[in-house]
Amino acid sequence: MFQWAPFALLVATLTWVVTRAWGPLKDPDSWWHLRLGEDFLDQGSISTPDHWSSFARATWVPTEPLPEAVVALVHRGFGLPGVVWLYVATVVLVVLVVYFVCRRYAAPLPAVVVTTLFVAAGQGSLTPRPQLVSYLLLLVLLEAWRGTERDLRPRWWLVPMCWLWSLCHGFWFIGVVYGCLAVLAIALGRRASKRQLGWLSALAVSCGAVVLLNPLGLRVFEAPFEVSQFTDYVTEWARPSITSGPALTATAMALVTAVVWAVRRNGATWFALILVASAVFWDWYAIRTITLGALVAAPLLAGALQSLVGLEPGRPGPGAARGERGALAGVAVVLLTLAAVVVPRSAEGPGDVPTALDADLDRLPAGTAIYNSYTLGGWISWRHADLNQYIDGLITPYTAAHAKRFYEAGLLQPGWYATVDDSGAPVALLESNSALAAGLKRHGWSVEGTDAGFVLLRRPTRSGT
């Protein structure tokens, strides 16, 4: 019976992931991803569409056109329940891929324990966004380069994969950097000849150069870094708290790996050392990158734990047996079938948005400016596409100065009312308990309605008008 305990834990983890994901869409960025996907479908290309807000005046390029277009297609065919089911299926795939990669280095029990730790650390970013594609591709890329460190064979299929990645999410550049670091690690290991290092260097460079063929052009190279000018204003790019459970869990995964290596004095190749150091870096760089740290550390920790019971560390075994893979595939099918039954009822409508105010917003004339909460910008762009929101989670089409003014106005810093007033917005849609909503009420803005923790405010009529 004990031999089935790890699988029971894995099934419990998968079940928890599924039941957490099959509710209404709540991630505020889901809506602008859907809107952007609809724009791609409407224009018949993935070229940069006109942004839907007149307040967005910066040049930009989309970095996730392929998954956004796919999700928009799913929505056209199956509505919001279809989008939620696709999200559920993708999260299940991520968890199972993490497990199967860990199984290459460990028996079921340590592999399941590590997979569960990954879910615990990364749950905050296992959201319905294209970044899920990056998690899958990064895991594949790292395993490929670890294999190359062992056998010194270049895996040229990484080149088209990196091109595809550049159409799916802005983290593609992380994969390119890891490729360069892998070549450096191989050089430090002094096993490769100059000719082999030359070919491997060509592979690493090609993985970056191929992005030049991205249909969006050269600006796709700049796009992943443009978000850096907004990190002070976007919560997920803030540094994690020192008491953050996910960050501490992910860091523990890396540190336990390092301790086992140090105690056993084997198992740590140059590339593995680089990976574990980078995992700690991701754990504390930003809230959004904690999942990257846990993902990078997971196979390393699985191998380290398995080394405690005799498997030579750093050398993957045959992985999960065919029967094990079949059984887990069956579990996945059952869970996704169950989700297909539950989701049409549990996710028929959106979550955490003020749907009771939709009628009020629908009555506003097309093109009306609305000074909105950051978390509702995406919702407005999708559900109320004819309105002109002040800001949204896509953020890069806005200037850094615009984002700064919005952020400072939310804190009622000097000049805050001038920022709202200059927007010309006759209405504001804000968190009910926000300082800005209270400040506008003191300036005579009247309450038009409330719902889901948000309040719709109307500007006072100017004298003489």
Please give the alpha-carbon distance between the first and last residues. 80 Å
Overall pLDDT, averaged? 94
Strand tally: 5
Uncertain parts: none
Oligomer: single chain
Spatial extent as radius of gyration: 24 Å
In terms of DSSP E residues, the strand content is: under 5%
Order of helices and strands: HHHHHHHHHHHHHHEHEHHEHEE
- Spatial shape: globular
Strand-pairing-aware structural class: mainly alpha
| Tally of alpha and pi helices | 18
Give a short account of the largest sheet: 5 strands, mixed
Question: Helicity level, as a percent range?
Answer: 55-70%
Q: How many domains, in number, for the residues? A: 2
The strand order across the widest sheet is 2-1-3-5-4
Describe the protein in words:
With 465 residues, the chain is mostly helical. It has 2 domains: 2-335, no CATH class; 355-458, no CATH class. 58% of the residues lie in helices and 5% in strands. It has 18 helices and 5 strands. Strands 2-1-3-5-4 form a 5-stranded mixed β-sheet. Strand 4 and strand 5 form a beta hairpin. Helix 3 (65-103) packs parallel to helix 12 (290-307). The mean pLDDT is 94.
